[in-house]
Specification:
Layout: H1 3-11, E1 21-24, H2 30-41, E2 45-50, H3 53-65, E3 69-74, H4 80-94, E4 99-102, H5 117-145, E5 149-154, H6 157-161, H7 167-187, E6 192-199, H8 213-220, H9 227-232, H10 238-248, E7 260-264, E8 267-271, H11 288-299
Parallel strand pairs: 1-2, 1-4, 2-3, 4-5, 5-6, 6-7
Antiparallel strand pairs: 7-8
Helix pairs in contact: 2-10, 4-5, 5-7
């Protein structure tokens, strides 16, 4: 959809975020930019964040050309210094901060036996530590001022289910969800909501996965993705996710906190908090011999790991790579 038309269409309704200010980390391009554009379309002034000045400037221009308000902080997410710079920029430029979306991330995919310390630390620093430092800075400022706020942290299906070759990414994304649940408890009294979103959309990462080839190609041509992807897989565009981000960053979601929301294509999901699926007792406890001889009988069917995809229809199967 043409971005100018998108802003124009939304301006016909009352903008849900008019007068508010939002920070979106890692928002120079991709999913983060889609989130920033939607927040701006709903009336928020947006602080763009990226490691590239050129990319950040282009994102700001795209939003302002469409009638929105945006400015940028160019810095890598992870350190306390960057977190402070982002929050300071919001207050110094716009006089307030209402919502924070922690989206910044990188990938260093390798199998366990090939993953280096540097591969692991780099991903953990940006995703996990970057989420922690930014949320801590925003929440601290809100609590000191006695103001409410909305925090939206970006998770991943990998953090929920695991994925081959992504030890570091899975650890970071599952850790983010654990922090979200903890922060929801800690910040509830202050009126600060904290939620996680699990997006499923065409990104630079999914572009390389043959299973999604036909969907990504349709998106790149500006065509609607095949219904199978949007409905059966809940896989769509970045814009399909953005509305959920804006909703959770608004006062319309004041009663929602500590939740993990999945969104993609035509599908919306609410992920459960981990609960025991089987509970059994044995008088005197469970010895090695008890477990060796009766573990499967005691606990029943084991839990699956990894994402499970349905069979692709023949017409949507990926074409052989030359």
């Amino acid at each position: 959809m043409d971005e100018d038309l998108q802003i124009e269409r939304k301006s016909e309704n009352a903008m849900t975020l008019t007068g508010t200010v939002a920070i979106v980390t890692g928002s120079g391009q991709g999913l983060g930019l889609a989130y920033a554009r939607e927040l701006a379309a709903q009336g928020a002034s947006v602080v763009i964040n990226d490691v590239s000045q050129e990319t950040a400037d282009a994102a700001v221009k795209q939003i302002t050309d469409a009638g929105g308000t945006a400015s940028a902080v160019v810095a890598p997410v992870g350190s306390t210094e960057t977190a402070k710079a982002l929050v300071d920029h919001a207050y110094e430029t716009y006089g307030r901060l209402d919502s924070l979306v922690t989206n910044a991330g990188i990938l260093r995919d390798r199998t366990l036996w090939k993953m280096t310390d540097e591969d692991f630390d780099a991903v953990i620093n940006v995703h996990l530590r970057g989420t922690f430092t930014c949320v801590r800075e925003a929440a601290t400022r809100w609590r000191e001022a006695g103001t409410q706020g909305h925090i939206v942290c970006i998770g991943s299906p990998t953090g929920q289910r695991g994925n081959f070759g992504q030890t570091n990414y899975a650890a970071a994304k599952s850790g983010i969800v654990g922090m979200v649940r903890t922060w929801a408890l800690e910040l509830k009294k202050a009126g600060i909501t904290v939620n996680a979103v699990i997006p499923v959309a065409a990104t630079a990462m999914t572009k390389t996965v043959p299973f999604f080839q036909k969907a990504v190609e349709a998106d790149e041509r500006g065509e609607a993705m095949p219904e199978f992807f949007r409905k059966e897989l809940g896989f769509g565009t970045a814009d399909d996710v953005a509305g959920t981000i804006a909703f959770l960053a608004s006062d319309a979601a004041n009663g929602i906190t500590g939740q993990v929301v999945g969104v993609g294509g035509d599908r919306l999901q609410l992920w459960s908090h981990p609960e025991a699926v089987t509970t059994v007792y044995r008088e005197g406890g469970w010895s090695y011999d008890d477990l060796a001889s009766g573990f499967s009988d005691a606990v029943g069917e084991l839990q699956s790991v990894g994402e499970k995809f349905p069979q692709l229809p023949d017409e949507l199967a990926p074409e052989p790579r030359s």
